[in-house]
Amino acid sequence: MSFTYAGDASTLLEVIRLESGDSDPKASETISDQEIEYFGEQNGMTDLDIAPTTALYNQILSVAALVAEALAGKFAKEASYSAGGMNESANQKAGECRRRASQLRRRSKQAAGIHVGGRSESDKTAAKDRTNLPQSAFSRGMHENA
Questions:
Q1: pLDDT tens digit sequence for 1-42
Q2: What is the CB neighbour count within 10 angstroms for residue 96?
Q3: What is the 3-state secondary structure (H, E, C) of the chain?
């Protein structure tokens, strides 16, 4: 089982690790490259060695959510321990991973937003001004040579 992470987010695999929180090879629990590739294949991503693009952002977040859930499952199997006044609860780590998975799913749904046309001009202008909304990639006259 291999673990690849250089820290430069140059491949889909690295971005998925970064988003899921699985970027520390020295952590007690990690997800292997092969397991991430399996999750990628389930989401239509057959090659995780390519550079990330914004077009794949929704899929990246969906796969990262699956990885975070798999990490939560691994931490849930661990026992909590205490040594020298330090407490480490695997249950807490599992809960953090589940929360991260939930956040990633929420973000992936936002990234998949669709712009609906036919609204009033004032609604369209207000939507353009709200930078937290997904912006339309298409507009009237976008191919006109001005």
A1: 788 888 888 888 999 999 999 888 888 788 899 999 999 998
A2: 15
A3: CCCCCCCCCCCHHHHHHHHHCCCCCCCCCCCCHHHHHHHHHHCCCCCCCCCCCHHHHHHHHHHHHHHHHHHHHHHHHCCCEEECCEEECHHHHHHHHHHHHHHHHHHHHHHCCCCCCCCCHHHHHHHHHCCCCCCCCCCCCCCCCC
Full domain range(s) for residue 39 = 12-114
Contacts of 125 (CB under 8 A, 6+ apart): none
Q: Name the token pair of 70.
A: 């798999």
Is 1 inside a domain boundary?
no
- Residue 91 forms part of a structural domain: yes
54 domain residue, yes or no: yes
Q: Which residues of the chain have pLDDT under 50?
A: none
Query: Residue 64 is encoded by which pair of tokens?
Result: 């990262």
- Given this model, what pLDDT does residue 86 score? 58
